[in-house]
């Protein structure tokens, strides 16, 4: 059994397409397909359900092998990273996930990581849900991410195989962004009651930040019906820039151009955020560097 076979197999499960998997591994489709057939012959079971030329999911045995392949491939990546560090620097690509409401916090953490380790490169997957990030960390598809910590409930038991570790990064609070002509009517802040009468753009209902917003509005008896929903903070700001909507976004300082940001009050919405990563032993040099950046 070769490491390359396990890497190709993991790529196929991730991409769910032979051609895309081969492209992601920088090999031909025939090379990837033949490697997986050899892996199947070695383990003695079909691992992939195939049509005439299409991927149709994994067999039961394939799902079992995938669990092991992910762990073996992750250990191989950690070994390679740690050996690179022995040569004097951390020369790796960190695969990082970020929720929309903590994009700025993720950028700050990654900035500290790269300041301390200039050879580190970043593969940032943005606008994920906290649940998506936890799942991808557990499946070794991401090295770490920034989430709302409630999404990791049930996965943080110390010493448990497949557990994650959280490092608190403080909290984010929300503000309301809109064109100056719209925002000048308010006296330095916007309330939940004000939002009832405005065309509002919000994060989607599948985001924990949105759930926190909805709970806070319910607590003060405000009924805010969004005119637009999206999973992207960048899209929220772009919508606000048109002047057709105001957007509720994580606070990040002053806006540019004609956009104005005012704090959201009555209720004030604060949501905790945290770094999440696998709780592995031994801890790789990359994970150690991420922990240091989170504590800085």
TrEMBL record:
CDD domains per UniProt: PBP2_LTTR_substrate
Keyword annotations of the record: DNA-binding, Transcription, Transcription regulation
Coiled coil stretches, renumbered: none
GO MF term set: DNA binding; DNA-binding transcription factor activity
GO cellular component, one term: cytosol
Keyword Transcription applies: yes
InterPro entries referenced in this protein's UniProt entry, alphabetically: HTH-type_LysR_regulators, LysR_HTH_N, LysR_subst-bd, WH-like_DNA-bd_sf, WH_DNA-bd_sf
Stretches assigned to the HTH lysR-type domain: 1-58
PANTHER family referenced in this protein's UniProt entry, alphabetically: BLR3139 PROTEIN (PTHR30419:SF31), HTH-TYPE TRANSCRIPTIONAL REGULATOR YBHD (PTHR30419)
Family designation: Belongs to the LysR transcriptional regulatory family.
Descriptive protein name: Transcriptional regulator, LysR-family
């Amino acid at each position: 059994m070769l490491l390359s076979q396990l890497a190709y197999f993991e790529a196929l499960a991730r991409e769910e397409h032979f051609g895309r998997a081969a492209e992601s591994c920088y090999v031909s489709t025939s090379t990837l397909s033949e490697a997986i057939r050899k892996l199947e012959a070695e383990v003695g079971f079909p691992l992939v359900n195939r049509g005439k030329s299409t991927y149709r999911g994994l067999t039961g045995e394939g799902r079992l092998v995938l669990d092991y392949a992910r762990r073996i491939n992750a250990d191989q990546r950690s070994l390679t990273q740690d050996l690179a560090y022995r040569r004097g620097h951390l020369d790796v690509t960190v695969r990082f996930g970020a929720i929309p409401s903590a994009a700025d916090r993720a950028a700050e953490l990654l900035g500290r990581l790269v300041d301390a380790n200039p050879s580190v490169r970043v593969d940032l997957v943005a606008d994920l849900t906290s649940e998506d990030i936890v799942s991808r960390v557990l499946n070794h598809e991401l090295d770490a991410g920034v989430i709302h910590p409630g999404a990791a409930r049930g996965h943080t038991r110390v010493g448990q195989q497949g557990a994650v570790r959280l490092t608190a990064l403080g909290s984010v609070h929300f503000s309301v962004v809109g064109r100056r002509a719209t925002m000048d009517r308010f006296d330095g802040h916007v309330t939940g009651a004000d939002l009832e009468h405005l065309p509002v753009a919000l994060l989607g209902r599948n985001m924990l930040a949105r759930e926190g917003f909805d709970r806070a509005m319910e607590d003060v008896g405000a009924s805010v019906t969004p005119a637009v929903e999206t999973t992207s903070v960048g899209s929220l700001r772009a919508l606000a820039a048109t002047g057709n909507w105001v957007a509720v976004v994580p606070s990040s300082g002053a806006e540019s151009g004609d956009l104005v940001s005012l704090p959201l009050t009555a209720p004030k919405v604060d949501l905790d955020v945290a770094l999440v990563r696998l709780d592995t032993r031994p801890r790789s040099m990359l994970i150690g560097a991420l922990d240091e950046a989170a504590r800085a």
